[in-house]
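Sequence and fold
=================
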Amino acid sequence: MQNLGVILRTFWEKAVSYLTLQMSLTDIIEIIIISVLIYYMLVWIKDTRAWMLLRGILVILAFVLLAVLFEMNTIVWIADKLFNVAMIAVVVIFQPEMRKALENLGRKNILVNLFNFDFNKVENGKFSDKTITELVKACYEMGKVKTGALIVVEDEIVLTEYERTGIAVDGILTSQLLINIFEKTHRCMMEQSL
């Protein structure tokens, strides 16, 4: 543990001496640009399924960092050998999200999005008590007549990827609306089976 303190203290001293001696205006501008890009990349990732994957990757990197700090040579050797394969795997895993990001980049005005800070935005609760009551009522009514329904409620994992493939219904959620949406599917399935 004393070794870790010495390493961190040495790193801190070198970082402070480097920043005070060799920092120019260009370096400061470069740091600001990279910080803004990383911020917007993280905001974008948070709105996709990639957020959970990124969190998993960060946990693995934390374990590898601990292995380096405590000189666990076998784990460091394995991590070193897997690094090149992992880079290719990350590109393959994040391919849909990267494609979506490039499509959005082509569609939007970059300067407006970079400097559009909405500080007055307040996140409201997802559902009111009335909405929850209507959802439960619809499920109960459909259950009585054995109508199957797949209803997905967004929580931590954002579902915009699936919303794009559906049809937007600009309406207030009521039990009757849900029953009508799923009842039609139920009737069509009954007619097809006859």
